[in-house]
Amino acid sequence: MMSWREYQALQRVMVLGERYLSYVDQGQGEAVVLLHGIPTWGYLWAQSILPLSRSFRVLVPDLLGYGYSDKSDRFERSLSAQAAAIEEWLERLGVRRAALVGHDVGGGIALRLALDFPARVSGLCLLNSVSYDSWPIEPILQFSHPRADRAISARTAGVLLRRMLRLGCHRLPEPEVLEGLVAPYLTEVGKLSLIRDASSLDTNGTMALASRLAALELPALVLWGERDRFQKVEYGRRLAWDLPHSRFVGIPDARHFVMLDRPDAVIAELEKFLTSAPSSRATAA
Amino acid sequence: MIFGLRQVEEREADGEIRRVYHEIRQVLRINGVFECFRSWAGFGSFLPELWEELRPLLETRHFEDAADALRRESARQAGVIAHLSAAQEARLGEGELFRLRATLDLHQYALPKLLLVVTLARRALLAKPEEPLPGQPALLPVPPPPGIRRGIPSTMPPLELQEEKVADRELRRLFRELRRSQELKRLPDLYRALALWPAYLRGFWRQLEPLVGQERYGSAVGSLRALCEEGASGLPLHPAFPEARMERIGQDYEAVLAATEEREREFASLLLNVALAQGEWKSESQLGESPYPAPARAVS
């Protein structure tokens, strides 16, 4: 498992207007975009990148306001704004079509992007994603008051984040992984950015999509750590039922951070989904 | 109270201090409140009162130009002293290098202004009430001097600082070494910012430390301070904050003055150090340019 410092050294950067986005770009082939959620960053996918990059071009951005992307306190962070930024980034990279793999808030962004820019998306995989009214969850709400900045120091934020990450895992992650996941948020600037990220979480962002799901003509995989306390498995099953070309796969003994709990199972399911041709993905679904 | 031991962090600021912090960001066009202000804020109402004296001058074209001249001089001096290669040695990735450069740009923009601010503060503290400084006109120019537009440049990164009490043992050791070798009670913001890339800061300090004791380094710092003094004396307004006023607000005049002078020395060195750091990828002429040129204000 690479350290977060090693991961950081892999990151490239793209300027998008007045903002910048950090990302990892590994491998060749059909493009696969891995989107993290809150309160993590691209490093969440560190164990998945190497195996997937043997067959695919794996693109892993830090969402705006997260990780080592722009953390200025002056831009919108809604699902639609994030989706538009990812779309612009793909355009600038010259990626015409990509499969989207989204976890948590990243799942909401992937869904939004697939609905708003269907020509850009070849397939959709949602892992323990936010959906409908499943979010924001309690541990994140403590960050979401706009003035939480005054009540929570960077050090306290670190304590809360570690606790939340432990709660989101079925088995405790390696200490280095845990430290890596919280690393960008241990400064006052990082913490404030996380607070702004948390403040931007809005149930309406996914409720507005609910009635559009049936029109999504894309192969989709709904992959869920079945013991998730944050995004309950019932939401995953509901998503799979509403998405017309989807398949639900539950992963036992895994909670919210399913790619940390069961990396091999997640990679195997992703490879199976991604290696099937787009047309056969839809048929299989 | 010893200057530097009590600081008001941005997130702790309340009332008048919070208001002044906002104005500092907007008027100086800097995305963060630097340590000299956070420390001055530890002296009760001193910062808000000093700010009211300084602010009209800090948003003038004259002030911005004086800061630009300091930046150019720091570039010239750095070119004479050495060419460092800390970033190359640290083998930073593309993203890390991008953010390191942006961070150094922020400090390169801020430090000439901060050096001028502490010099102006020291001169204000030494000024006699109702009297001009020697050789200076007593009256304010009429009409008011041309202003620059307020507001933080849209692409300027925030002032991001590593916590001083960081968990990483090696970084803690480096912090101790920096404080000890420079006889600092607190780590300057520049080093706390560079500590976000520990390998870089380590290499930078390893290359910088032998230079700091050299005569040409000392003379470059002296030259920056002299230019700053000249720039401050040539500005169109001369704020005053005499001892009697400090007594009225119940703060320790000597402590504030001593500490302000300490910051003056420190900022001159830091300005040179930033130029030395950026000399790794910028030519002297590029280094001399403001990374965030200030547009004129439409209405003064």
Description:
- The complex is a heterodimer of chains A (285) and B (300).
- Chain A contains 14 helices and 8 strands.
- Chain A is of the alpha/beta class and 285 residues long.
- In chain A, a hairpin with a 2-residue loop joins strand 1 and strand 2.
- In chain A, helix 5 crosses helix 9.
- The longest helix of chain A has 15 residues, at 79-93.
- The two termini of chain A are 33 Å apart.
- Chain B has one domain (10-141, 151-281).
- Chain B is globular and about 55 Å long.
- Chain B is mainly alpha-helical and 300 residues long.
- In chain B, helix 4 (61-81) packs across helix 6 (94-126), helix 6 (94-126) crosses helix 10 and helix 10 (215-233) crosses helix 12 (253-278).
- Helix content of chain B is 61%, strand content 0%.
- Chain B starts with 14 loop residues before the first helix and ends in a 12-residue tail after the last helix.
- The A-B interface holds A 8-13, 18, 20, 22, 68, 70-74, 149-150, 153-155, 186-190, 192 and B 9-12, 31, 91-96, 98-99, 154-163, 165, 196.
Query: Could you give a short account of the major beta sheet of chain A?
Result: 8 strands, mixed
Sheet with the most strands, sense and barrel status of chain B: none
Please give the number of β-strands of chain B. Answer: 0
Helix content of chain B: 55-70%
* Bulk shape of chain B: globular
Task: Give the DSSP E fraction of chain A (strand runs of 2 or more residues).
Answer: 15-25%
The overall average pLDDT of chain A, rounded, is 95
End-to-end separation of chain A: 33 Å
CATH C-level class of chain A is: Alpha Beta
User: What is the strand tally of chain A?
Assistant: 8
Distance between the first and last residues' Cα of chain B: 39 Å
Shape of chain A: globular
